[in-house]
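User: Can you recover a sequence for this backbone? Please restate the input before giving your answer.

Assistant: Of course. Working from this structure:
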């Protein structure tokens, strides 16, 4: 294998599982808190980082929603997203499909338009200045009701032409995908693509529901699918893309050690997996670091890495014509 770090950095990649609020670095958190006169429960950047020790998803979510409280203006959302795009570009990300959680912000009195306009202006700037294209996916918070999700979809109506899809995130256990059957059907009718966090902490039954009840186009995480052979067969038959997040899985104790991460097993089973960063400011690394640490821990081969890079584009919501130049660039690297 060529020098691993150089090889990974040079591979064109798409990131398909990134919560933009989870890219809020402690330094920017403090800057925005000052700018907006918001009190933080932390005295310093070091204190914030020290608080990032989680034993499960809920531990993380509690602190993640607290951090998001500094985001108030359109400029804040623009600055947040630009900081992410700069990091992603440096890691060889050529395309990103980013999640945002409007309900986290509208619940604090921040209008939907402020959030969406700030993110969309950063997306345009990232394409013009960094050559990184992107799409926006609205996530519903699954710990809230389906009626609240339906109201959020209504609020998004003026933005439907600039949204790519909807997703489902937040506390998984006790909030199965079927709880959101109507709002996902409504989103599909409006021409949106569908994704859903499933099988991160929740059982294989939640992945089945995401497929059979919600009819999703992509599964976010999906790790626990491996507990169910028939489910693995179904995912392979569908060619369903799973957006796996190794450092997130480590920090949220979904796995005890990266060397025990199921990603290599998933590849060997024929599952269409991708590597993503989830909430990089909280989990210790952006997409490049996820690739590098996973490749080392699981002794991924050059062929594995090429497959992962191809999967990130074939599993994206880019059209075949849009994905083609990226796939050609990966083929060119493979032939070298
Ligand atoms: N899982 C569920 N909800 C989330 C996550 C996650 O990893 N990150 C942000 N919201
Ligand atoms: Zn996630």
């Amino acid at each position: 294998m060529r020098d691993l770090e150089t090889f990974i950095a040079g591979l064109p990649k798409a990131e398909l599982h990134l919560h933009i609020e989870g890219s809020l670095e402690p330094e920017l958190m403090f800057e925005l808190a000052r700018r907006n006169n918001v009190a933080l429960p932390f005295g310093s950047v070091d204190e914030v980082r020290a608080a990032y020790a989680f034993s499960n998803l809920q531990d993380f979510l509690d602190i993640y929603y607290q951090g998001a409280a500094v985001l108030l203006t359109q400029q804040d959302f623009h600055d947040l997203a630009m900081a992410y795009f700069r990091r992603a570009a440096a890691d060889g990300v050529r395309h990103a499909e980013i999640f945002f959680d409007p309900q986290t912000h509208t619940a604090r009195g921040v209008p939907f338009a402020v959030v969406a306009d700030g993110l969309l202006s950063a997306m345009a700037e990232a394409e013009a200045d960094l050559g990184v294209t992107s799409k926006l996916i609205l996530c519903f918070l699954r710990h809230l009701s389906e009626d609240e999700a339906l109201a959020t979809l209504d609020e998004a109506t003026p933005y439907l032409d600039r949204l790519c899809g909807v997703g489902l995130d937040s506390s998984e256990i006790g909030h199965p995908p079927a709880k959101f059957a109507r709002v996902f059907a409504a989103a599909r009718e409006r021409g949106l693509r569908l994704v859903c966090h499933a099988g991160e902490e929740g059982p294989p039954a939640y992945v089945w529901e995401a497929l059979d009840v919600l009819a999703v186009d992509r599964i976010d995480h999906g790790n626990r699918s491996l507990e169910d052979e028939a489910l693995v067969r179904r995912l392979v038959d569908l060619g369903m893309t799973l957006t796996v997040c190794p450092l997130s899985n480590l920090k949220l104790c979904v796995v005890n050690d990266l060397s025990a991460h199921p990603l290599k097993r998933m590849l060997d089973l024929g599952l269409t997996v991708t590597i993503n960063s989830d909430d990089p400011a909280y989990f210790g690394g952006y997409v490049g670091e996820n690739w590098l640490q996973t490749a080392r821990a699981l002794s991924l081969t050059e062929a594995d890495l090429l497959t992962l890079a191809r999967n990130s584009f074939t599993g994206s919501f880019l059209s075949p014509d849009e994905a083609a130049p990226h796939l050609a660039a990966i083929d060119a690297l493979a032939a070298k």
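That completes the design. Residues 17, 19, 169, 197, 220, 278 surround zinc ion (ligand 2) (CB under 6 Å).
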